[in-house]
Amino acid sequence: MTKTLIPRRQFLQGCSAAIAAMAGAKLTNLAFAKQDNPSDTLVVVFLRGGWDALNVVPPLAGDDRGFYELARPNLKISDPLRLNDQFGLHPAMSPLYDLYQSGKVGVVHAVGLDFDTRSHFDAQEYIELGTPGSKSTASGWITRHLQSTGISSILPVLSTAGQPTSLLNFTPTVSLNTPEDFSLWDNGLRDSHMNALRQLYAGDSLLHRAGTRTLDALNIVSPLSGGGYTPSNGATYNDDEFGLQMKTVAQMIKLEAGLRIATVDFGGWDTHEYENDGNGGYIATLLGQLASGLANFYLDLDSGHTEKLSVVVVSEFGRRLVQNESYGTDHGHGSVMFALGGSVNGGQVFGNWPGLDNEQLYDHADLAVTTDYRQVLGELLSKRMNNSDIEAVFPGFSGNYNPLGVFK
Amino acid sequence: MQTNRFTRRDFLKLGGTLAATSVLAACAPDDATPPTVVSQQGVPTNPIVTTEAQTPLPPVPMATLALNRLTFGIRPGDVEAFNALGATDDERLQNFVALQLTPDSIDDSEFENRYNNAGFETLHKSLEQLYADHIANNPYNSNDNSYWDWYSKPAHELADATALRAAYSEKQLVELLADFWHNHFNVYFWQDDGVPLLVSYNRDALRAHMLGNFRQMLEAVAKHPSMLYYLNQNNSSDAGPNENYARELFELHTLGAENYLGVRDPNTVQKDADGVAIGYVDNDVYEAARCLTGWRIDDNIGGWEEGVGISGNFLYYKPWHDRFNKIVLGRYIPADQEDLKDGHDVLDLLANHPGTARFIARKLCRRFISDVPPESIVQAVTNTFYENRAAPDQLKRVMETILLSAEFKASWGGKVKRPFEAVISMVRALNSDSNRIPGGIHWMLGLMGQAIFERRSPDGYPDVREAWANSMSLLYRWNFAVGLTENWMNDDDTGFKIASDVYGQTPAEIRSASALADYWIQRILNQPLAEAGRNAIMTVMAQDYGPEEALPDDHVRYVLPAMVEVILMSPEFQWR
To answer: Quick one: which H or E segment has residue B485?
Structure first.
């Protein structure tokens, strides 16, 4: 037995990379069979904080443009990219513009939670539980989807940030930041540790199950932990948190271990002040990271993986039509969702636009919600995820289900 | 539009208690129970928890429960010291709690030595000094890294000192409370404009009041530049109030989401016997935001604002204050009140509201008893909080109610350590030696999802196991067990070190795998393990030897750390 001592510098860089490099593992050494997915891989990107839908997809023309400009003298987007005659796209989202034009990106406007709340935490929980108005639901909407379709794969669900509420009570979830970080440090007796941990975590509690799941995931992911991942098609992810998360998801999809669903969190959208300075500023940075991450993700997977790929981008609400005095916007209501993938009927803006005249606003203040977010997710489940039991996933909603045609 | 109807939400939120409230309101005014707002049935569990509120575990000695719950983990000698505090478990717990709730009486010289040797340069500075030295007069060029190093130095030192206190201070309950209250009134480390001021916020607004009075703490927080910057109150004027702080003041700091009735006409909300609304609606947030306009910081860095200096202190700026009348929670607030009174009225209404008593009580019980605390103790703590709302030691009495309760004594299995608690408890279990926590520990806490003071959103880190039973959180506490025990954590660049010596702490006469396992299981967990668990640990120690065989010294030196690591990794070490 020789004990592997890790030089401090490597430790600071992330010990695990050094260890795994020594193992020399390759993808082809995976100890499990490749699995064909019976459905799409769904990636749910949740923008925490309530993104400013009216500046992401601003009105271009007509009375609504006038209301918009009047309400936002310092925040209005003056040179949006053109989505159609009615709507534009924030210029910082330009990395997604080609994909919109080629029909891979669809937009749903005035969409959201049809429930009276302007609380971040209420709204996020209602959306993720899939039961607006009730927090006593014991599982998240993704959990119920997976339960109603059954799970057979090795790595069905990945979360790049802990366990979101949408996966409440779904124990096979694996959370990891990057594969490079995902290994058990080796003091020379790692096999002994793994064996002992198997026995110690062989129990029924939430903690025991989480431990067992982590040990399973170590076996699956460890071959990737040596690093050196080269994205396909020259995709170059930004070195920001969102870019790294999307890179991780792409790697996991390419593992072909049956990944059905990945959840990605992206925070910082609560733009109460200094949201925008002309077309630059704070929100432009976030939108640039978002669009770049999504575009590179698509490019990276456009090597045989996009036909069975659906990405949805959702936030808990939009923001007030009128800017506040600190050049920001306060909590609002109606929002905008994006869908990306080979499965999307892209190049269109979906939804029933309610208008921005005072009488058309929710509570005389915010963009109204004319499309329940569950219409979009329900359609996704039904058309792309082999799940027609919308009632099981969104109890009480199926009577209102009326798909917009966002997905093929 | 949708603002006047009595919705499904009201039913869910208020359940059957509208009727119950009326009955209570008719009771004698000196009834100990505050008029209750929220039903016990169907209370929104915020944050959401699943059905596994408390894992059924074999009972443990009182010392194990109390020390895991009221400290950051058991150090060698702690159990003996606890047991010496009395003849019965109740007596010991009572004396331990009494001691911990009078922190000034505790000898903390060991910690103070470490603290004095840590090399902290900024933690003694007042709010004004921090502002002057690190913001207004930062001597470096803002294009250089040195500028930002100097700017963030106080907050980094605070994070290091927080870990050091948690690991070594004898005033352990104080440290747990500081952690609780910083998360309750969360301010993010990297909030935009006032990073250096976090030192003052933690010390002057939170620690100064956490065994004192909630109303006073609420005002200290409301007026502290850290909070004023973080939730944008600093920019809120009558021309267009910024609602960020006002909303979280209701939702996170006082009444809680459980008392939020949504977007609707405030006139439709029921009032209690004092005419105060039993819950809040959006309109209350807007009106409170108006009351608080002009609450800002004396930070005229640009030099163009008349009547504003550059001290970094709280400033009531009358030109920004909305002078007209408002209605908050049904209470009329007349125009042109004296300076600050509008805001003080809002804080009074909130701090003295029975809904706040219940929200804070439940949250403290969640912290100290169980993810889903029994309603009996939530009610008792609500009563203590409410009855003592004017007392200078209100929060100390609240803690006594929690910690001496029957529910506390029966709560083993109610909590799982969060990453910060797991990490610090390992340092304590091994009696590891450090005067300054190496940076690698912060890095690992980040990978586990709980870097110190780095919760970005204002709700603070979650306090239920569902949020932490994920693979990264577990994997990196396992990795920390390895890194700490093997002495891989030292940071040569900064000179910050942490040293562990499990071989040196093992009596020389204990040399079989079986005996070593039993010794270290007892030492770290202070409870026996089931046979399967004990065998798994012993097998690591034995490797190819028999369980009772005397092990050669080089084998012990080499393998003992690995066995101790497994004990630290075990599920039993994660309970608290």
So the answer is: helix B471-485
In this predicted structure, the answer to whether residue A30 has a pLDDT above a threshold of 50 is: no
Low-confidence ranges of chain B (pLDDT < 70): 1-54
Tell me, what's the pLDDT at B52?
61
Degrees to nearest 5, angle at CA B53 with B419 and B408: 85
Gap between the Cα atoms of A257 and B391, Å rounded = 60
Report the residue of chain A nearest B52, measured CA to CA.
A206
- The region of weakest confidence among A198-202, A258-262, B313-317, B572-576 is A258-262
> What is the enclosing helix (H) or strand (E) of B187?
none
For position A154, what pLDDT does the model report?
66
- Mutate which: A128, A193, A316, A358, vs B, most B CBs within 10 A: A193
B103 Cα to chain A: minimum distance (Å):
34
Q: Indicate the average pLDDT of chain A.
A: 86
Hey, is the C-beta of B570 within 8 angstroms of any chain A C-beta?
yes
Please name the residues in contact with A173: beta carbons below 8 A apart, sequence gap of 6 or more: A157, A158, A159, A163, A167, A213, B470
pLDDT of residue B47: 46
Enter the tokens of residue B292: 């608080």
In chain A, positions 185-214, which contact chain B (CB-CB < 8 Å)? 185-189, 192-193, 195-197, 199-203, 205-211, 213-214
C-alpha dist (Å) from residue A164 to A125, B57, B242? 9, 27, 29
Query: What residues in B contact A119, CB-CB < 8 Å?
Result: 247, 251, 257, 260
Does A33 touch chain B if contact means CB atoms closer than 8 Å?
Answer: no
Specify the 3-state DSSP secondary structure of B209: coil
- Is B183 within 8 Å of chain A by CB? no
Residue A28 pLDDT greater than 60, yes or no: no
Report the complex ipTM.
Answer: 0.89
Chain A: give the shortest CA distance to residue B370, in Å.
15
HSE-CB of B62 using CA atoms within 13 angstroms: 23
Name the amino acid, one letter, at B557. Answer: R
Asked if B242 and A328 come within 8 Å (Cβ–Cβ), the reply is yes
A189: confidence class by pLDDT, cuts 50, 70, 90: very high
pLDDT of B40: 31
Distance (Å, rounded) from C-alpha A332 to C-alpha A116? 10
Q: Is A169 on the interface with B (CB under 8 A)?
A: yes
Report the pLDDT value the prediction gives residue B50, as an integer from 0 to 100. 54
Check CB contact under 8 Å for B240 and A323. Answer: yes
Is the CB of residue A154 less than 8 Å away from at least one CB of chain B? Answer: no
The residue among A172, A153, A150, A152 whose CA lies nearest residue A163 is A172
For residue B47, whether the previous peptide bond is cis, meaning omega lies within 30 degrees of 0, is: yes
Give the model's confidence band at A150: pLDDT under 50 very low, under 70 low, under 90 confident, else very high: confident
Give B533's contacts in chain A (Cβ within 8 Å).
Answer: 199-200
- Please tell me the pTM assigned to this model: 0.84
Helices (H), A281-362: 282-301
| pLDDT-above-90 percentage for chain A | 62
Structure tokens at B386: 């409410």
| DSSP alpha helix (H) spans, B292-332 | none
DSSP B477: H
